[in-house]
Amino acid sequence: MSSLLKPSFRLAAAAIMISGFVRIGNLKIDAFIQSQYGGHSQYLTIQGLWIAVATMILGVLLSIFSFLNFLRPLRRYLFVTAMPLSVVISSIYWTLLVFFPHLIVASIQQPGAPSSSSEAPAPFYLPLSIDLALHAAPAIALATDFFAFESKYTEKEVRTAVPTIMVAYTLFYSSWVEFCATKNDGNFPYPFLTISPPGVRLLIYAGAGVLGAVSFRVLNSLHSRPQ
């Protein structure tokens, strides 16, 4: 039973996340997203979701097929990307949704489905199950996987690999979302970016990158299983 727990957990986590993304296609918001340059790839939520899914699925394969052990370092570095992103996404999204929903939910006035945010415009109303699958499941699943099944990262990895990956991803995402905005009449996927001048957006990108790196260091320090 113990040998089945790890792949079963990872497969279930991946299925929940994939289900959340697939069900977006049933909402009116999907048509708006698809009409924008960059589509779903503009959203850090979606990028983080797919990296988390890839991390989980690779973990399933490694749990079942021992001859794939040469891919274990790849999963470790995927995890270093996925975990900080999930923390950034969850912490920013839920904080803004609860206290400042107009900063995280775009104002497109079309009829839509009920949402976990009663103040959100209709097309961006996400059913709570989808909201949780997109904005909570990755962080919860990755944290559980880390403490239950994975070994602690070395100090060298935390000191060098994590900041390097976070800087690289911050540069990639900020460049991509800024480029998409030039194609979308200056509109960003998140309202708090749309209303922010360039200097403030730069601080937001940098702050998110720092949050990701610091959060991983904190989580790793709480891990008791040695490398």
TrEMBL record:
Its keywords, alphabetically, are: Membrane, Transmembrane, Transmembrane helix
Task: Specify the protein name.
Answer: FAR-17a/AIG1-like protein
According to Swiss-Prot or TrEMBL, what is its membrane topology?
Multi-pass membrane protein
InterPro entries from the UniProt entry: ADTRP_AIG1
Origin: domain of life: Eukaryota
- Organism for this UniProt entry: Coprinellus micaceus (Glistening ink-cap mushroom)
Q: Where in the cell is it found?
A: Endomembrane system
TM regions (residue ranges) = 12-29, 49-71, 78-104, 124-149, 161-179, 199-219
GO CC annotation terms, alphabetical: endomembrane system; membrane
Which Pfam families does its entry note? Far-17a_AIG1 (PF04750)
